Amino acid sequence: MTISIASQEISEQQLDNEVVLSVEGVSKKFCRDLKRSLLYGVQDIATELVGIRQKSEKLRRDEFWALKDVSFQLRRGEALGLVGPNGSGKSTLLRIISGLIKPDSGFVEIKGRIAPLIALGAGFNPILTGRENIYANMSILGLSKKEIDERFEAVLDFAEIGAAIDAPVQTYSSGMAARLGFACAIYTEPDILLIDEVLAVGDIKFRAKCYRRLAKLREQGTSFILVSHNSHSILSICESAIYLLKGKVVTVGNTDSVVDKYEKDLFSNEIKNQAKLLSLTDKYESKQSDLNITALCFKDEQGNLTRSLLSGETTYFCVEFKAYKEIENVTLSFLIQETFGESEHVLCINTQQDGESWDILPGYYEIQLKMPYLGLKPSFYTLKLSISKNLYYMLDAVESFKFTVEGKGMSQCLFYQPRTWKLVRSHNI
Ligand SMILES: Nc1ncnc2c1ncn2[C@@H]1O[C@H](COP(=O)(O)OP(=O)(O)OP(=O)(O)O)[C@@H](O)[C@H]1O
């Protein structure tokens, strides 16, 4: 009896550790010049046909490595996040894994069924109806007609597109196409699901439903590769991650440490580019306006200009402007969004709400907003700001002011909570 339990434990452990995807030394080159790319393509086909094509590590004119020597393994039930800046090769890697394109060197080994959710409605034919596309899409993913018949209602139910199922997919909104694509992919019950940013579309309710469904699939042993610019999604879904930069693997390992490294690199690049954003000297100055915003900046408690904001620190947000004439009832409003977030406003502040407005004479001014504890979590932000007269008459605005906030150990939080701790002993035993 004991022996059988032990052997069962071992076999479960082996199953858990089962590698379902192996990517070994994968490299892929592309050519920047379209004409030359076609020429290289024809050359490659011709040399392959006569059997003299050799895999070359050399780049021809205008070629570059979109992926270089990428290796990793994905295990059964594992969720792996893929992070990296634009153009780092994430989509190329997913396209190679899904078999859409061939690598120039290296190989990909897959055990089981793979379902790619790579672009919105990937694989959908726009002139076919939703119903026809479900059959076409799921049969490409390897299901028989009988299997699709059995799952059809569940797909329809999940996608929530109602009567539109008999309309051509080209009439669908991007959210509807994404829902149908997601439903088709998950109901094929794949062993590996590749998800490229698709979770960023759709309303919050649908996203929550997708996350619940993904958690369920994972319990059943499905593995995922998730590409997202939103670190929060990666951190909440994946236990391991890969950071790609210019086609090469920078780090691979536990999600927290990989995302931390990726964000640090992004922060330092943003901060280097930030200096000139503090002053708005390049901003167009309208001669017809009664007021012009001249600079935006942050200051610390001592009044020093600061470029590195820290969650939880006392911070002043300062807006300098020049008024050309006497103006009554001047108000300021701004809203802050996460630059790479999913478009929800993180913070909207309006002097009117706070019962503040000013009557001003011609001259130079600085409005200072004191935030005793900066409640923003570490991330990149974009701020939009406007100064108005009588709330609705806009005098001047700044469309996009970018800044970063740093802090430690808050990668999964949504905001900073100022706090102190105390242990109080209530009774003796
Ligand atoms: N078919 C192609 N022909 C030529 N260049 C390409 C092709 N596909 C991708 N590239 C280039 O390869 C590089 C990697 O692109 P890829 O789409 O994989 O990046 P990514 O990390 O997914 O970017 P993003 O985050 O913007 O989606 C980019 O420089 C891109 O311009």
From TrEMBL:
Q: Which InterPro entries does its entry note?
A: AAA+_ATPase, ABC_transporter-like_ATP-bd, ABC_transporter-like_CS, ABC_transpr_TagH-like, Bact_Polysacc_Export_ATP-bd, P-loop_NTPase, Wzt_C
Q: What CDD domains is this protein classified in? A: ABC_KpsT_Wzt (cd03220), Wzt_C-like (cd10147)
Limits of the ABC transporter domain: 52-271
Q: Which SUPFAM superfamilies does the record cross-reference, listed alphabetically?
A: P-loop containing nucleoside triphosphate hydrolases
Task: Show the Gene3D superfamilies listed in the entry.
Answer: abc- transporter (atp binding component) like domain, P-loop containing nucleotide triphosphate hydrolases
Q: Which GO terms describe its molecular function?
A: ABC-type transporter activity; ATP binding; ATP hydrolysis activity
The protein's UniProt keywords, in alphabetical order, are: ATP-binding, Nucleotide-binding, Transport
Q: Does the keyword Repeat apply?
A: no
UniProt entry tagged with the keyword Nucleotide-binding: yes
| GO terms for cellular component | membrane
Output the SMART domains linked to this UniProt entry.
AAA
Q: Which Pfam families match?
A: ABC_tran, Wzt_C
Similarity section: Belongs to the ABC transporter superfamily.
**PANTHER family found in the cross-reference section:** TEICHOIC ACIDS EXPORT ATP-BINDING PROTEIN TAGH
Name of the protein in question? ABC transporter ATP-binding protein
